[in-house]
Amino acid sequence: MLERCTCCKKARPPELERRIRVNDEQYNAQFEYANNYICTSKYSILTFLPKNLFEQLQRIANAYFIGLLILQLIPQITSLPFYTTIVPLVFVLAVTAIKDAVDDFLIPAISSLSPVTTFIPLIAVLTVSAVKDALDDIRRHRSDDQVNNRKSMVLRGDKIGEEVWQKVVVGDIIKMENNQFVAADLLLLSTSEPNSLCYIETAELDGETNLKVRQALPETAEMGDDHNLFKQFNAEIVCEPPNNRLPKFEGKMTWKGETYSLDNDKILLRGCVLRNTQWCYGLVIFSGHESKLMMNCGKSIFKRTNIDRLMNTLIIGIFIFLLSMCLICTIACGIHESVINNNFQIYLPWESFVPGTSQGTKEGSIAEGSTVIALLIFFSYIIILNTVVPISLYVSVEIIRMINSILINWDKKMYYDVNDTPAKARSTALNEELGQIEYIFSDKTGTLTQNIMEFKKASIHGKSYGDYVDTEGNPMDITDATPKCNLSFNKYADPKFEFYDKRLVTEVQGGNREVGRFFTLLSLCHTVMPEVTEDGNLEYQAQSPDEGALVSAARNFGYVFKSRTPNTVTVEIQGEEQVYDLLAILDFNNVRKRMSVIVRRNGKVMLWCKGADSVIYERLDRSCHDMQELTTHHLNEFAGEGLRTLCLAVKDISDSEFASWSAKFKEASISMENRDDKLDAVYEEIETNLILLGATAIEDKLQDGVPETIANLAVAGIKIWVLTGDKQETAINIGYSCRLLTDEMEEVFCIDEEDMAKVEEQLDKALKEIHDKAKKKPHSDDVDQVRFSNGTTPSGAAYNTQEDNAGIVGELEYGLVINGHSLAHCLKPSLEMKLLDLGCLCKAVICCRVTPLQKALVVDLVKRNKQSITLAIGDGANDVSMIKTAHIGVGISGQEGMQAVLSSDFSFAQFRYLERLLLVHGRWSYLRMCKFLKYFFYKNFAFTLCHFWYAFFCGFSAQTLFDPYFISFYNVMYTSFPVLILGIFDQDVDDYYSLKYPKLYYPGLVNMLFNKKVFALSVLEGFISSLVLFFVPYGALIGAVSPSGYDNSDLQFFGVVVASILVVAVNLRCALDTSYWTGFSHFFIWGSIIYYFCFMLAFYAPVFNYSYQGVAYSVFSSAKFWLTLILTNVILILPVVAYRFYMTNIAASLSDRVRMKQRLTKTKARTKDLHVRRTSTFRRSARSMRSGYAFAHQQGFAALITSGLNMRDRVASSLKLNSPVTLTKMRKVDDTSTSASNLEKKATNGNTVNVKPSHPNSVVDGEERVIRSERL
């Protein structure tokens, strides 16, 4: 495996160009090109141990423990056995190492404790972490193995045989068959299709499911399927070096003395799927990690959470605090030795190596001897007090993260049963980071949308169609029972087609001339290719889903596009087959935003044109003014519903006019200079004085729940940026559809200039406008003020409030849209901060026409300059770079491929599950981890500082207060399980209320629950607790004797008393921190206390002959001990209970109030959930939401059609009917009159809701009804 993995090979010098000779293995081998083996895991068998240890030692705590272990191995300074350190340390290192592997594939001189006390915990911690990392990496290895062992047919010599992908090399010729994945980046040589065309699906690369066309060189296509010809093929390829530019390829091929140009149209990229092509042959150009797919994946980044980074800082602070305590003890020890202990050397002589010892082995003064002893004591106290940084903390953290990841995997509400896809936590180290996400960067196609277009409405000759209407023409609700239009008169109609306006069907059947021309245009003006399937069904292969939806709509209404040749288009109109002569196709491009066809039938020449309303209106005849106004009104209605609109127009052309224009067109088409500009000028000449036919409206179907998810995440305070390769108008339209952009926005800024100076000017203008409007906006606005009493506050409202009604004043909201060439300038150092400032002032940001690299750069810009946690979500290979760059990467595992999933930290099948991942699992994980850390530091400072107070009573001799075994077991057996259960199962409110009140997510955004201040308060509580734990028993037991006359104030008795009270106190404190009690909680909290007492009685029994023999029985049989235990715990717990009571009942946070509501709800029947939405009080944005024509369409397909290269015999056949599908849609009820009159209003379900809109707890729901918000 190591030999195959290119990452393990010696680095080669960078390539300037790539040279390949076909069928010359020896020549190609000299360049040492990468093989086709891929490796996405972090570790191999040999690198796992050193690499994993290096990563674990990036945690300052682990490095600290190893240093501590070394100190404990020095006999002269150790007062603790080595196992108190080594056991937890090894455990931590081992666990972390195993975890990384699965995902990817100890001298006592200055210590009073044995090194075992450190060694055992350390080994345990490292082991647990290693196991977890190993498990994660093993999953990556399995995914890699699955891909590497796919089979391909490889031509070696004149024989073709099956070979696994990992053994494919540059220069091989591969045969692929229909529906197979492309194994490497290939130069297409020949195919089974006419003119050597093949069709590929690039969903794995860009998330788009529409097919792309590739064509081989005619010279290589002649080889066909002849293996002997391929054996003699000896061409030499010179091309660009490996790179990540997916849409571009440059190279040349020399063969038989001729040189041929190679471009992207002749390349099949790894990850594509061959469709509708029986077979094809290709030459391997780039393989393995040098393929464009893998080059876009980037390197695996070692990710740590924000809490991990904070912990490293806190560990440094704790170590400084530890050094301070040790320094105090050192100074005090030096004074004590020189003033007091020196006089008792006859009983307790100094060590033989200490100057001035009474043993006479070392000469020196008392001051010198005291200094040496004090220095040794300094290191001794470092060892004794090391538990302020508990080794077991990290093993517990790893376990909590692992189990929380399993809970995500087991969540049935994130399971997508359509394709049997559960949610998957692919990384087990980032869970709590999900509760702190502030910026989400999302792809559009395949992530927010399904990439499926549906024809919904039309405006024809000034009349709107598409709504379900009654006999009087009034729009009605569409429900499950609403009947679809009967299209049975058309044998080509798709039974799945949903249309409810019977008026349009009546007009079609009645032979309405304008309706007929409308659908005739849709059936003629396109670049769609018809396809007849094996079962005889007629299907369309469209360059874009927009075109497919429009041509399919025409077919459903009886205007069936059946076939085409380079010179004709055949359609069947209401059963009559008509053949049109195709005279010219005026192709679409980004500037024209339209396409036209010129056809002739029965001697009449006509131009049919469709495009964006803005460009069509400019070219209309003056006679269309009235219909233009009606159509514009309809377009605004369609756009308001988030539909993508398109205008249609027609023109009659005289023979003389066409003859003159045709000559100019031919001249421009063969020009060798500025051909595109000349063609555009010729197109402009003929596309004038058009007659408007109407407009279409199609729906770019969003994934289920996308608008609701985005709205809820926005309320939670999360900002969403969409980074898409689609064109600007398409992205804007989807932005409105999914509620990313809204009419409430004051302005949507567009940055679309190509010149850097003009881009900067646009940025400055937008920033100035925002700042100017912010200054002019009054501080109070009665019209816009909205008050909430149920906690569903918009972003920016206070999370913790003492008032019932938390009022907020609406803020001005802005959107930002920026295209790719402008973004390229904005990402330069001189402009990137302006872009960031503007983006952060906007509620939503949409970046269009961006490359995969630009996606990563935008994410990195925010990540570097904002103290915020970022999340990137996508579904294709073009999203991999941003997924790896963000703090959290999420892959959508749907029909679009698995490349993004393989590079992600979390994956699921639908975008809507992101809401639950963040607002439920993320928030719970963050809450649990914060509670866990606060409690852990509290209990360990309370435990460790008891040693510090005891130092003042033992002459600073580094004598420990507790039994060494108690020190080892305190964090492993006595107090570990209750806090583990807290970190695994605790929740403040359940998932229902977590989603209902998204503002509960707010504490994670501002890092409220665990930060330096919270840590300091936990340390302070532990400090005070240690004082109580030490001095209350000290005062109670000083001079105490048992009823039998034995002394009860010796070290062992006192140590066991303090230890017992400590165990009870910290477990009771854990019980107070628990918000969600389970059977595990009761078992481990109360069980830990009981276990401690039982274990101490057994361990200190005479049978073990231990030095503490009989102490436990003596302590537990003393009434004074039990009274002291009760008194100390009351002193410790009562203030905490009082504080909690005050915070919960007097200064309750939103979480406290929702939790109280949840408790009350459980005692009652759950009432109907009423959702509160803000009413729109802002003016409608001046920017039109309408988008133009087919913005997923690509230029250049028209030339391919007219050349005839992509033609084949096509036979139309009738389609079989399937079961009908109905669309459910809730009726919208106008609430204007109700708002004005303060009268009762009946909702659609028949229930009456009494509302006074002026009431502070009332709000108008702009879509359904006026309701009263709930009060917590």
Question: Taking Cα atoms only, what radius of gyration do you get, to the nearest Å?
Answer: 37 Å
Overall geometry = elongated
Uncertain runs are 1-9, 99-112, 780-810, 1165-1191, 1209-1272
Structural class assignment: alpha+beta
CA distance, first residue to last residue: 61 Å
Mean pLDDT rating: 80
Number of helices: 40
Q: β content, as a range?
A: 15-25%
How much helicity do the residues have? 40-55%
Main sheet overview: 9 strands, mixed
Count the beta strands.
42
Q: Major sheet: order of its strands?
A: 17-38-37-36-18-30-35-34-31
What does this structure look like?
By secondary structure, the chain is of the alpha+beta class. The chain is 42% helix and 17% strand. It is built from 40 helices and 42 strands. The chain has a nine-stranded mixed β-sheet with strand order 17-38-37-36-18-30-35-34-31, sandwiched between helices. A nine-stranded antiparallel β-sheet has the order 20-19-29-28-27-26-25-24-23, sandwiched between helices. Strands 6-5-7-16-8-14 form a six-stranded antiparallel β-sheet. The chain is elongated. The protein starts with 17 loop residues before the first strand and ends with a strand. Mean pLDDT is 80; it is low at 1-9, 99-112, 780-810, 1165-1191 and 1209-1272. It catalyses: ATP + H2O + phospholipidSide 1 = ADP + phosphate + phospholipidSide 2. The active site is at 443 (4-aspartylphosphate intermediate). GO terms for molecular function: ATP binding; ATP hydrolysis activity; magnesium ion binding; phosphatidylcholine flippase activity. Belongs to the cation transport ATPase (P-type) (TC 3.A.3) family. Type IV subfamily.
